[in-house]
DNA sequence: CTAGGGTTAG
């Protein structure tokens, strides 16, 4: 990892070196004056014949096509230039063939061709994409060997590599070092940092950086805005995203299809279809045609709403507009069928995908999940076994889905067997895998075993999240072990984790069930201060607590408050109210009127 | 010829 980077001026002030302090020691870079001197005669002859030129193109049918070309061009004499190899390598990077590019670089070197800043940056990028950022840094040594000086692109690539590995602090350090080393970051550099901040939930920091960019001599572009708008949309902050959208247009930065995709996705997630369709129209009216991403966003959201036939209709329209559905489209559609329990349709589509050769690991996962959810564990098992015979490798999601299904089908023994096999096949269980097992143990009533597993999770380098806590706190509450539940609840805060609405609902319910209404009420009122707004479930839980303990006045106040906030009573709350307040027409009328115009349970 | 943004599964 880079600790510091600076240009060192000699006493004469004419020659300077760029010095990098790395984990592997100090690397010194000669100045450009030297490198130019050493590399004044590296120009290559370009092969003239048309047949050879054909192989030097940068577009290829597939990986095999590209490799065939490579095998041809390395036989050319004179050899193609490093620039020509760069075009070629870049095409392979586009196909995500990072391993191949690394080994081809070795071949290129062994042919006696010198690297360029471009080719080494491509190489660094490949290591970074393979999560081998330290190997990326070690390539800096090659810059010395070839007498080259890394440039802004090189450093941006490394900063991105650190971001890919979640080392955002290291990325920011390198960014600062790069600046103090005299390398001016450009909009790409800023965008890498902005994107990493957004992806790690630090959208506010990203927005600050966006605002400061201009002063630092680098104006944000459409990519900067897109990254931030996407993060805001994913946090359901559509208004803020739309504000940035108009700010961007005021600066005369034209939105792209990606801008619209981010916004459409955000708006679809809130179920605002009319607004989403309005954006789609606006997009057509502008510099913009929907992409496969647009189609997939629409299809996926419609399917999740259970509107599979609408999704199919949109797909037809899009096909007419020239957007071809891809594996993601079909996966979403398949998931849609699964969600409305049309397993035959899902299976039919899956079979078509398999025979078309496009089914991927996600397709298998969706169908296995569908079978598990519809209690067809034998079908799921069959599919899982079939998968092992194909070239599609099951991943952590596959195993976790199957483990969950087995546990829910009452086969904990088989679930643990699959867990063992996943480890022996080198698939790393993650926090979701362990949470699935934790959930299984809790549902079985093996709370002590669950607690042991949980403690092991905390000790490991897995990041235990709020969901893991929710599962265990819920298990403890249901078993009446409120002391354990409360201890876990406070430990969650100590760990610096943010409880969510589920955590609060669980603990409030637990407290209510034990008759600790005052304490439950305190927690309920404390939610907002902790930045977590109560939802309808929280209201229903606390109201039910008061109703069950015959505290009608408090329940009435809370019902008023809930209705004012636009939430509805659920079936249980309603039953309790009917039972207890048979004569209180006022409150019943209020609940009834509200339930008519909301999604709440249907009452008579 | 090198760096950045959007879609699916647990």
Automatic annotation (TrEMBL):
Keywords for the protein's UniProt record, in alphabetical order: Repeat
PPR repeat segments: 151-185, 186-220, 221-255, 256-290, 291-325, 326-356, 360-394, 395-429, 430-464, 465-499, 500-534, 535-569
SUPFAM superfamilies in UniProt: HCP-like
Entries under PROSITE patterns matching the protein: PPR (PS51375)
Transmembrane segments: none
PANTHER family, alphabetized: ATPASE EXPRESSION PROTEIN 3, PENTATRICOPEPTIDE (PPR) REPEAT PROTEIN
Family recorded in the similarity comment: Belongs to the PPR family. P subfamily.
Protein name (Swiss-Prot/TrEMBL): Pentacotripeptide-repeat region of PRORP domain-containing protein
């Amino acid at each position: 990892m880079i600790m510091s980077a600076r240009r060192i001026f000699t006493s004469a002030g004419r020659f300077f070196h760029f010095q990098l302090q790395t984990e592997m020691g100090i690397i010194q870079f000669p100045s450009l004056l030297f490198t130019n001197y050493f590399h004044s005669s590296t120009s290559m002859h370009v092969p003239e014949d048309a047949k050879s030129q054909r192989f030097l193109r940068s577009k290829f049918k597939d990986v095999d096509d590209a490799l065939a070309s490579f095998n041809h061009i390395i036989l050319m004499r004179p050899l193609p230039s490093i620039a020509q190899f760069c075009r070629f390598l870049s095409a392979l990077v586009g196909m995500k063939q990072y391993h191949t590019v690394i080994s081809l670089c070795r071949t290129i070197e062994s042919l006696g061709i010198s690297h360029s800043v471009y080719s080494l940056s491509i190489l660094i990028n490949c290591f970074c994409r393979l999560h081998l950022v330290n190997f990326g840094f070690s390539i800096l040594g090659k810059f010395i060997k070839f007498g080259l000086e890394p440039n802004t692109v090189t450093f941006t690539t490394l900063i991105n590599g650190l971001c890919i590995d979640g080392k955002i602090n290291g990325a920011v350090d390198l960014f600062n070092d790069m600046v103090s080393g005299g390398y001016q970051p450009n909009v790409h550099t800023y965008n890498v940092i902005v994107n990493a901040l957004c992806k790690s939930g630090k959208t506010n920091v990203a927005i600050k950086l966006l605002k400061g960019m201009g002063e630092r001599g680098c104006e944000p572009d459409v990519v900067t805005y897109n990254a931030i708008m996407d993060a805001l949309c994913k946090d359901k902050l559509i208004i803020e995203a739309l504000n940035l959208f108009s700010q961007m247009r005021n600066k005369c930065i034209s939105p792209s299809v990606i801008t619209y995709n981010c916004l459409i996705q955000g708006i679809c997630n809130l179920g605002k279809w009319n607004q989403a369709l309005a954006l789609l129209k606006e997009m057509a009216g502008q510099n913009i045609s929907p992409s496969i991403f647009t189609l997939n966003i629409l299809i996926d959201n419609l399917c999740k709403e259970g509107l599979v036939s609408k999704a199919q209709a949109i797909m037809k329209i899009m096909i007419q507009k020239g957007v071809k559905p891809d594996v993601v489209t079909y996966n979403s559609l398949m998931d849609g069928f699964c969600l409305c329990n049309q397993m035959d349709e899902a299976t039919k589509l899956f079979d078509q995908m398999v025979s078309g050769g496009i089914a991927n690991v996600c397709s298998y996962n969706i169908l296995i999940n569908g079978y598990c959810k519809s209690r067809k564990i034998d079908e799921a098992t069959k599919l899982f076994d079939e998968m092992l015979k194909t070239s599609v490798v099951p991943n952590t999601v596959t195993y976790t889905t199957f483990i969950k299904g087995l546990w829910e089908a009452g086969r904990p023994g088989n679930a643990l067997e699959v867990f063992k096999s996943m480890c022996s096949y080198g698939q790393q269980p993650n926090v979701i895998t362990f949470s699935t097992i934790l959930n299984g143990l809790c549902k079985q009533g093996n709370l002590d075993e669950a607690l042991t597993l949980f403690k092991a999770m905390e000790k490991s380098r897995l990041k235990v999240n709020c969901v893991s806590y929710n599962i265990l706190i819920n298990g403890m509450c249901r078993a009446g072990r409120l002391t354990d539940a409360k201890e876990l609840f406070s430990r969650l805060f100590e760990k610096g984790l943010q409880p969510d609405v589920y955590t609060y609902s669980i603990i409030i319910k637990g407290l209510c069930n034990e008759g600790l209404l005052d304490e439950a009420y305190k927690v309920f009122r404390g939610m907002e201060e902790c930045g977590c707004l109560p939802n309808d479930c929280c209201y229903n839980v606390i109201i039910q607590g008061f109703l069950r303990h015959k505290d009608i006045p408090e329940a009435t106040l809370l019902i008023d408050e809930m209705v004012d906030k636009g939430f509805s009573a659920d079936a249980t709350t309603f039953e309790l109210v009917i039972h207890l307040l048979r004569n209180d027409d006022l409150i019943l009328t209020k609940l009834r009127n509200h339930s008519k115009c909301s999604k709440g349970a249907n009452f008579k």
